């Protein structure tokens, strides 16, 4: 049987509740892990390298790109962010499902290099609700919220490039759909092909 884990790529606009859905999913599914991203920005108070991010210098990050050690990478606010290939591959080989919570730009890179991955876009029920969630966080000023909402339109327009769309109207509903998608994918012929071949060989 195919014991390799699933690579799950999760995206969605800021404020849609990706982090909350993910935390609930990881608590419920001990066989899943969240990939740790690498970045060139400085650690914030309380952040630990290898736990929250892998903190790299610009030179170290560029070297990993040159040596094809990044599954995906992009630049945001003057800093580089990316997904190191080796830890993801190791977890998948160990039979763990690996979740990449990344921006649309990075997800499209993964789509080219990892065709077996499943791509899930988390959507708000409507733009009014997304605005309310961003405002209720009380972590950003009006201009930052405006920019995030502006960007969310282009991100949501890319949802058609994903395999599945999950509407996060409530955490329970979103979690139920996420569970169902992963379960269905594990039963797909794409994932079970090796098992079918092994059964035929034993016949």
From TrEMBL:
Pfam families: Guanylate_kin. It catalyses: GMP + ATP = GDP + ADP. PROSITE patterns: GUANYLATE_KINASE_1, GUANYLATE_KINASE_2. Keywords: ATP-binding, Cytoplasm, Kinase, Nucleotide-binding, Transferase. GO terms for molecular function: ATP binding; GMP kinase activity. Its EC number is 2.7.4.8. InterPro entries: GK/Ca_channel_bsu, Guanylate_kin-like_dom, Guanylate_kinase, Guanylate_kinase_CS, P-loop_NTPase. Residues 5-183 form the Guanylate kinase-like domain. It is found in: Cytoplasm. It comes from the Bacteria. GO terms for cellular component: cytosol. ATP binds at residues 12-19. The keyword rRNA-binding does not apply. Essential for recycling GMP and indirectly, cGMP. PANTHER family: GUANYLATE KINASE, GUANYLATE KINASE-RELATED. Belongs to the guanylate kinase family. This is Guanylate kinase. The lineage of its organism: Bacteria, Bacillati, Bacillota, Clostridia, Eubacteriales. The gene is gmk.
């Amino acid at each position: 049987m195919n014991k390799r884990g699933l690579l799950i790529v999760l995206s969605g606009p800021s404020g849609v509740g990706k982090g909350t859905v993910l935390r609930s999913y990881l608590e419920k599914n001990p066989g899943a892990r969240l990939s740790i991203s690498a970045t060139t920005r400085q650690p914030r108070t309380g952040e630990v390298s290898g736990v929250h991010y892998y903190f790299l210098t610009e030179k170290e990050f560029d070297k990993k790109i040159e040596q094809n050690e990044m599954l995906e990478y992009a630049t945001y606010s003057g800093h580089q962010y990316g997904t190191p290939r080796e830890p993801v591959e190791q977890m998948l080989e160990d039979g763990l499902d690996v979740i990449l919570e990344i921006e649309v730009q990075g997800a499209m890179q993964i789509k080219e290099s990892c065709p077996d991955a499943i791509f899930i876009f988390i959507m708000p029920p409507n733009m009014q609700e997304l605005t309310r969630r961003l405002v209720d966080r009380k972590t950003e000023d009006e201009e930052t919220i405006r920019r995030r909402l502006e960007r969310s339109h282009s991100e949501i327009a890319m949802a058609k490039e994903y395999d599945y769309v999950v509407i996060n109207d409530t955490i329970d509903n979103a979690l139920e759909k996420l569970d169902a998608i992963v379960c269905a994918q594990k039963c797909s012929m794409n994932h079970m092909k090796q098992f079918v071949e092994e059964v035929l060989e034993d016949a």
